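Milestone 3.1: sequence recovery, worked example.
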């Protein structure tokens, strides 16, 4: 036997209200329309739902049981409506984000946590990749957005890029490194110590080669390569190795007091860190809400990052 869910919801409203008129008012129906619906439900089950000639209105045991089912249906219906509204507002859903490893570890993971503190019903799937992987994932509908650096030459076809931070690299070392005693370093000083290389495909790898080219005949002794941000920092704190890092990454890690910035001029890349998405209207409101949150988060940090950069890096 199939019962109308609408009829069960209407029955629960009448039982909870204690009268036909109040139940009709709660549902926004006319009393005759509600009376007809309940009569149809009674005809369907073949037994009375209310005790006859009782005032106030009193449900039969069957009516009470069916009203309980109607009440649950109404609760789930409201939850479904709230879920749809949350999805449309971007406060519920799934965001698939990919980005360059050092930035994802140092900054974006923290921003994701801050976003979820405000919107706990938004889930995230985070992965690592560079520009090519992010572009392919967006076009294949496997990602919602990417956090990648992009040169000034322009964005890939069919994708939209929102800059959030100008690239600025620095040379980092462990705290107490011998080079920290010299307040006037040159790029030649950098060739006397071993280096850590970033992951293959990382734009930082090209930046490291640019530093090597600036040394002229001096080559760089690369002792360790391909690690995550945590492994690179752990390695540096136990050695005299140097690494080229985005200043913003050091900024995010500065409170750990494990690595320092060396005051030395190095070749700077012409690119911006930003958010890469498919061009056109946003398909995922939660992803768009997070994208806006990232933009605002970096805007809030810009002045503080610049102040630290001027004080820490160019303090000579």
């Amino acid at each position: 036997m199939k019962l109308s869910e609408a009829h069960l919801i209407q029955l629960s409203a009448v039982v909870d209200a204690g009268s036909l008129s109040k139940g009709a008012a709660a549902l926004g129906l006319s009393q005759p329309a509600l009376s007809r619906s309940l009569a149809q439900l009674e005809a369907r089950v073949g037994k009375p739902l209310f005790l006859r000639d009782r005032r106030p209105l009193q449900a039969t045991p069957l009516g009470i049981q069916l009203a309980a089912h109607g009440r649950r249906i109404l609760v789930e219906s409201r939850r479904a409506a709230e879920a749809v509204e949350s999805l449309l507002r971007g406060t519920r859903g799934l965001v698939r984000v990919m980005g360059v490893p050092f930035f994802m570890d140092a900054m974006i993971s923290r921003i994701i946590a801050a976003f979820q503190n405000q919107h706990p019903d938004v889930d995230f799937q985070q992965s690592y990749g560079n520009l090519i992987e992010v572009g392919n994932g967006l076009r294949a509908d496997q990602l919602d957005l990417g956090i990648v650096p992009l040169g000034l030459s322009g964005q890939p076809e069919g994708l939209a890029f929102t800059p959030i931070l100008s690239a600025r690299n620095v040379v980092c070392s462990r705290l107490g490194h011998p080079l920290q005693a010299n307040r006037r370093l040159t790029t030649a000083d950098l060739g006397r110590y071993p280096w850590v290389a970033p992951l293959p495909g990382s734009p930082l790898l090209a930046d490291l080669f640019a530093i090597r080219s600036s040394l002229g005949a001096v080559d760089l002794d690369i002792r360790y390569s391909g690690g995550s941000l945590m492994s690179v920092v752990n390695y540096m704190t136990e050695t005299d190795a140097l690494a080229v890092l985005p200043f913003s990454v050091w900024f995010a890690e500065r409170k750990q007091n494990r690595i320092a910035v060396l005051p030395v001029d190095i070749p700077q890349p012409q690119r911006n860190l930003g958010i890469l998405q498919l061009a056109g209207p946003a398909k995922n409101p939660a992803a768009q809400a997070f994208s806006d949150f990232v933009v605002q988060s970096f805007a809030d940090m810009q002045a503080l990052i610049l102040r630290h950069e001027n004080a820490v890096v160019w303090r000579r």
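The beta strands are 93-99, 122-128, 145-151, 159-166, 169-174, 194-197, 221-225, 242-246, 259-262, 271-278. The mean pLDDT is 86.
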